[in-house]
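Appendix B, Record 12. Input sequence as logged:
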Amino acid sequence: MVLFGVRSPLVVDYEETCKRLGKRLGITISLAVSVNGPPRLLSDCPLIDIVKFDAKRTVDPFVACAFAPSRRAELMRLAVELGCVADPALVDPNAVLASSVRIGDGTFINAGVVIGAASIIGSGVLINRSASVGHHAALEDFVSIGPGATLAGNVHVEAGTMIGAGATVLPNVRIGTNAIVAAGSLVRRDVAANTFVAGNPAVERAFDASKSSLHVEDGE
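Logged structural output:
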């Protein structure tokens, strides 16, 4: 496994998942690639700066390490342009997924996540620690779900959306492309594309990244 882009604090969870998978399936981190920032690795796996990286020297699949959808999409695009192949999906062995769940390439599902039956998870999605995704959910490409968030049944989250830690989305809600749901919010109605909602119940707010509980650059 190649960890591509290791400046995000969240990279340590990717490492832990790889360690747990290593005990069961023999998966190891063969290389970490640093992209535009200092690495935040805990392990002593081989590390190389992107300017010296040659994809032809590795056959291992990669996973892009970042919470923000735009950053993860950027890393995946860059890795593919360099000739890398995305991992089918990095799923922590302590996650519980229904057998009918479908998952796209380059997705990371962290420890403690539960995903209900007949759900579809797109490519480049990140579902963080202990989040719960209900039955018949649809998460499009590059969605990010924060720790402890709860999505009820038949929720549809469009591409590039971020849902913050501990947020709750009620059944049959649709959240538009590139929307942001603040941590701890209760979403009872559909959310329009490119909007920021917060509160209980969640309503549209002006977005100030410096005061948001969502660290847009590389947090969770």
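The CA atoms of residues 73 and 149 lie 22 Å apart.
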